[in-house]
User: Which sequence fits this backbone?
């Protein structure tokens, strides 16, 4: 894969006037040869996402909210592993999901034999969403960072990535390590969700991810088909939740839901 120049190597040379912040090159193995991301020193506000996208997109940088969480862990302490991460385009989303489904679903979901086979990818929802994916991502980021929002106090960052789905792989994110040790495989799924559901990665924490969805499922059948993908992508969302069956998860977490949240134990 041909790589684009990383403007974070020399922001000034790329014409970037970044606010005060931190360039992160610390990884679980050693110092990386170039910055993996930049994130601001100050909490993000509702307009920060839009401003950073306008600043970074022309030079190959995409915005993402950075959540330090209750343990106040910022990216320097995230055990980033870019050297251990492959390229999302080298993987097939359905292969990734079907492998995880076949490994875990029968036992963890207590399925009978007729339910244990991989059901296939969920269809594109029949109903189009009202907003374009990037506009909806900006709106979601604004709601999350509002003073009374659920993520007040998070920072905003910029990552050298071609598309939103690749952001976790671009930094070698290790959040799903207990489920999948190569996050690029999950990014292949995120790429598929971009195409089918208008998904965008909006926020990352040490082991959490928030995705905006501009075209969510609007029928029970669509939501239940997608629930199988979510289980294969992040089993803890269902295994360690009160929504611990696929129908319950589909109804409460997916049907008409324009934000998806993931957490890996």
Assistant:
């Amino acid at each position: 894969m041909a790589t684009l120049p990383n403007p974070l190597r020399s922001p000034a040379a790329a014409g970037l006037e970044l606010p005060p912040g931190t360039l992160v090159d610390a990884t679980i193995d050693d110092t990386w040869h170039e910055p993996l991301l930049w994130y601001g020193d100050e909490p993000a506000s509702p307009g920060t996402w839009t401003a950073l996208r306008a600043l970074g997109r022309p030079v190959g940088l995409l915005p993402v909210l950075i959540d330090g969480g209750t343990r106040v862990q910022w990216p320097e302490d995230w055990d980033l592993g870019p050297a251990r991460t492959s390229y999302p385009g080298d993987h097939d989303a359905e292969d990734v999901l079907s492998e995880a489904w076949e490994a875990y679903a029968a036992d963890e979901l207590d399925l009978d034999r007729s339910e244990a086979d991989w059901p296939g990818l969920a269809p594109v929802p029949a109903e189009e969403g009202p907003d374009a994916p990037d506009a909806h991502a900006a709106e979601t980021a604004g709601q999350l960072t509002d003073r009374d929002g659920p993520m007040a106090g998070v920072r905003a960052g910029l990552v050298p990535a071609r598309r939103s789905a690749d952001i976790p792989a671009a930094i070698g994110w290790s959040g799903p390590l207990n489920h999948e040790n190569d996050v690029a495989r999950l990014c292949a799924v995120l790429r598929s969700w971009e195409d089918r559901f208008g998904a965008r990665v909006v926020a990352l924490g040490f082991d959490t991810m928030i995705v905006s969805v501009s075209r969510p499922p609007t029928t029970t059948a669509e939501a239940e088909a997608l629930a199988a993908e979510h289980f294969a992508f992040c089993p803890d969302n269902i295994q360690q939740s009160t929504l611990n069956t696929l129908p319950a998860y589909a109804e409460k977490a997916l049907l008409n839901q324009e934000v998806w949240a993931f957490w890996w134990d």
Remarks:
- The mean pLDDT is 94.
- The helical segments are 48-56, 93-108, 133-145, 167-171, 183-197, 220-233, 236-239, 246-254.
- The CA atoms of residues 19 and 142 lie 18 Å apart.
